[in-house]
Amino acid sequence: MADLSPLQNVLDFVVLHQGIVIIVLALPPALLAYEYRRSLGAFLAKLPASHGAIGFPLGSLSDHFYGVLGNFLGLILALVGVLLAVKRPVSPTVGLTALTTACAHPGDDAVILFIHGWNGDPQGTWRQFPALACTDARLSSTAVIVVNYPTFMLRRNLRIAQIADFLQRSIEADPEWSKYRKVGVVAHSMGGLVAREMSLLETLSGRASRPVILIEMATPHEGANLARLAAALGIAEEQTEELRGGSSFLATLQTQWTQLTNRPKTSCFVGIHDVVVSEASALADCDQKLSFPEWGHTEVVKPMALSDTRYALPMSDVLNSLTAPR
């Protein structure tokens, strides 16, 4: 995972823990009110006798007024914190940038989206993959866009359907998007499930499914080895519930995908040394299937050259789909 800026980490924590932050902010007024009552009362009690007639009532009044005010503010902030903890009115995607253009050319009429998986990021997941696509002469009329989204605790821990909605909205808000006639998607691991959810959202919104090809690299269609996944990616196993084999999410997605009309063609790839996603899970519900005789879960999407089979084979399917008449 690429390092996040301190500001991004702070923003992520505040958004994820809005209620806790507000409750913590409620503590200083209450503590200050208590200290004010204690110290001011002691100070006024030491006033000379000539001020006694004034000091006593002022001390009592200040003790009461400021004490009540401070405790009232503390209580209000605490209640606001509880409401935020429950309601979370601030979107967990606030402040995030979803789309980064790796390369584009004048007159592009097609685009390839790279969608990373759990605990991934545009650089760490793909390494040279998008850059190789940018140097591929066969893609001279195709833009390459790398997708980024939050996938773990400090990046707000969105569910797969929420990630898909966030990315879909980001795409629709991009004024350049309407010029692309064809869309190819290259997705790794959970990114393939996100891409399928995005296709479903497009259909539900009344639009035809835009992607013509979906390349899924080591995508857990039937679930992943959660213990291995947690160990490989440094996350808690509880956070991977949606990727558990037999989960309600995967069952629903599989049913909806099967029923989806005009769905994009799917080409699925997996390395035989993948201990996170089994070959059966990675190749389930796919139109074309291929198992690499090597590579593990993360290495399978890190080609080193245009001739590398990890690039050549999936991108051959992308090229055939983008250039085929629709």
Please list the strands of the largest sheet in the order they lie side by side.
1-3-2-4-5-6-7
CATH architecture field of the largest domain = 3-Layer(aba) Sandwich
Give the CATH topology of the largest domain.
Rossmann fold
- The name of the CATH superfamily of the largest domain reads Alpha/Beta hydrolase fold, catalytic domain
Domain count: 2
CATH class of the largest domain: Alpha Beta
Number of helices, counting only DSSP H or I runs of 4 residues or more: 11
Write down the overall mean pLDDT.
Answer: 77
* Percent helix range: 40-55%
Low-confidence stretches: 49-61
Q: Specify the biggest β-sheet.
A: 7 strands, mixed
What is the global morphology?
globular
Output the radius of gyration.
27 Å
Alpha-beta content class: alpha/beta
Q: State the separation between the terminal residues, measured CA to CA.
A: 38 Å
Element-by-element helix/strand order: HHHEEHHEHEHEHHEHEH
Kindly describe this structure.
With 326 residues, this protein is α/β, with parallel strands linked by helices. It has two domains: 15-87; 99-323, Rossmann fold, CATH 3.40.50.1820. The chain has eleven helices and seven strands. The protein has helices spanning 6-16, 18-45, 52-87, 122-126, 129-135, 160-173, 190-204, 226-233, 248-259, 279-283, 309-323; strands spanning 99-103, 110-115, 142-147, 182-188, 211-217, 265-271, 288-292. Strands 1-3-2-4-5-6-7 form a seven-stranded mixed sheet, with helices on both faces. Helix 7 (190-204) links the parallel strand 4 (182-188) and strand 5. The chain is globular, with a radius of gyration of 27 Å. The two termini are 38 Å apart. Residues 49-61 have low confidence and may be disordered.
